[in-house]
Design goal:
Shape: globular
Structural class: alpha/beta
CATH superfamily of the largest domain: Type I PLP-dependent aspartate aminotransferase-like (Major domain)
Strand order of the largest sheet: 3-11-10-9-6-4-5
Strand content: 15-25%
CATH topology of the largest domain: Aspartate Aminotransferase, domain 2
Oligomer: single chain
CATH class of the largest domain: Alpha Beta
Distance between the termini: 23 Å
Number of helices: 15
Length: 487
């Protein structure tokens, strides 16, 4: 299967109209209910149930309260499901029942449901409570504290941190690397250190919130180009360079392009070869977020560069996390030695935040060595092959059944379009009854009209697991009227 075979999120105009009508009905009925509650509260001189206590600052804006209480609150059980196990191939979901109709609250029944897990980023199946990775992690608990209680520059840097940085730098093909305690903070604290006022950053329109947060804090001029559209990236760059810095027209001090390897809400693989060509043409720098692509793409699992056969030297900054394919915590930034040494002194995420737990660092090291084959086995290679086969098998059969699926072949993230707000909870609840745990995604994580279910495949899934899931999804999809592309 070739690259870029992707289904766009196109929907019939009648369906779009029905989505808007659904939201209109929800808003109108909710506003009427809110008006009645407010009126009764005034007459009886009781506090409105969703207002803050007198004398306290509000935690949310009124619009947020309205959304949480009258829209999200009605179906919050589709998202807020506690689990009592590791996020492996199967998980134990704690069963709850609603005890309050509005502003939903729940009570545990005491039962657990063992469900097939299609919602975790356990791409290579390392998030299990047995095996060589766990054995090495448990050993590290005897050698190190579970928390270092200090930043890397204040004594929280151990031999395990150094080994992880050396290993990940070698894995992605860079000279040096620095690790962070939290994946989100890896982006949000690195970007303000890399770019400042006077710089130009051109960012993909669907970049992750951590990238957006980091760019907002940087003070740089930020331009956005349409998602994964290399031609428009070039147009935006050309126009921005011609206009110069806002207010002065002076040339920008530097130009940085920011993209992701796999976009987590779309399952789309970055058009890296085209973006690298543009980067070279404009003598820009390139920052590639590989949170979802490292370990999951390429014949050796080394991300988008490995997948497309691109020299890692053509990408200036390679960022990634250990929370997905490596089943640990934290993130990394890899690049030249000079850049990494600068970040050690300039990034808030390493100067002020606690360093990554040494035990978690050992977990990532163990997973990396298996992927690289340094454990003397071919387990890593088999896991990466199994992940690709699982992803393409699952995607192919969902499309064959007439579901509208986003993303590329070889991507382990497979979004299935739901669109209608009334179908979010119905789809999730009916799958749960069939022993399938899946994630549904809606506004504000997506636009109002592009709600979806997002399946995340794992090398730990067997063909029998996938067939069980496909059977359940087919039944629920038929019940909910989701086969938009069926003949």
């Amino acid at each position: 299967m070739g690259h870029y075979q992707v289904e766009e999120a196109e929907i019939h105009p009648l369906q779009i109209l029905m989505v808007h009508i659904s939201y209109a009905i929800l808003y109108i009925t909710s506003y009427l209910y809110d008006f009645i509650v407010s009126t009764v509260a005034k007459i009886t001189k009781k506090r409105h149930p969703i207002l803050q206590r007198e004398g306290y600052a509000p935690m949310f804006e009124d619009g947020d309260y309205f959304w949480i209480n009258y829209l999200y609150g009605r179906i919050s059980d589709a998202w807020d499901r506690p689990i009592a196990s590791v996020p492996g191939t199967y998980i134990d979901v704690l069963e709850r029942k609603a005890v309050k109709q509005r502003n939903q609250s729940y009570a545990f029944t005491g039962n657990k449901m063992n469900c097939l897990n299609l919602g975790s980023y356990n791409y290579l199946g390392f998030a299990h409570n047995s095996g060589p990775v766990l054995d090495q992690t448990l050993k590290a608990m005897n050698d190190f504290n579970t928390s270092n209680c200090a930043s890397a520059v204040e004594g929280g840097y151990t031999t395990t941190h150094k080994e992880l940085e050396t290993t990940i730098a070698e894995f992605v093909g860079k000279e040096s690397a620095i690790i962070f305690e939290i994946g989100y903070a890896t982006n949000s604290t690195t970007l303000p250190a890399l770019v400042r006022k006077g710089a130009l950053v051109v960012s993909d329109s669907l970049n992750h919130a951590s990238l957006v947060m980091g760019l907002r804090a940087s003070g740089a001029t930020v331009k956005v180009f349409p998602h994964n559209d290399a031609a428009e990236l070039e147009n935006v760059l050309r126009l921005a360079i011609a206009q110069g810095q806002p207010g002065t027209g002076k040339p920008f001090t530097m130009i940085l392009i920011v993209v992701e390897g796999i976009y987590s809400m779309e399952g789309v693989i970055c058009k890296l070869p085209e973006i690298v060509k543009i980067k070279k043409k404009f003598k820009a720098f390139l920052y590639l977020d590989e949170a979802h692509s490292i370990g999951a793409l390429g014949p050796r699992g080394r991300g988008a560069c490995d997948y497309f056969g691109i020299n890692p030297a053509d990408v200036d900054i390679l960022m990634g996390t250990f929370t997905k394919s490596f089943a640990s915590v934290g993130g990394y930034v890899a690049g030249s030695k000079d850049v990494i040494e600068y970040l050690r002194a300039a990034s808030f995420g390493t100067v002020y935040a606690n360093s990554m737990s040494s035990v978690c660092a050992q977990q990532a090291i163990a997973a990396l060595k298996i992927i690289m084959g340094r454990d003397g086995t071919d387990i890593g290679a088999k896991k990466m092959q199994q992940l690709r086969e699982n992803s393409n098998y699952f995607r192919f059969h969902l499309q064959k059944m007439g579901f509208q699926i986003l993303g590329n072949n070889d991507s382990p993230i497979i979004p299935l379009m739901l669109y209608h707000p009334g179908k979010f909870a119905a789809f999730s609840r009916q799958l749960l009854k069939r022993g399938i745990a899946a994630v549904v995604v809606a506004y504000p994580a997506t636009t109002m009209t592009t709600g979806r279910a997002r399946f995340c495949l794992s090398a730990g899934h067997t063909k029998e697991d996938l067939d069980l899931a496909l059977k359940g999804i087919a039944e629920v999809g038929e019940n909910c009227g989701l086969r938009y592309l069926a003949n």
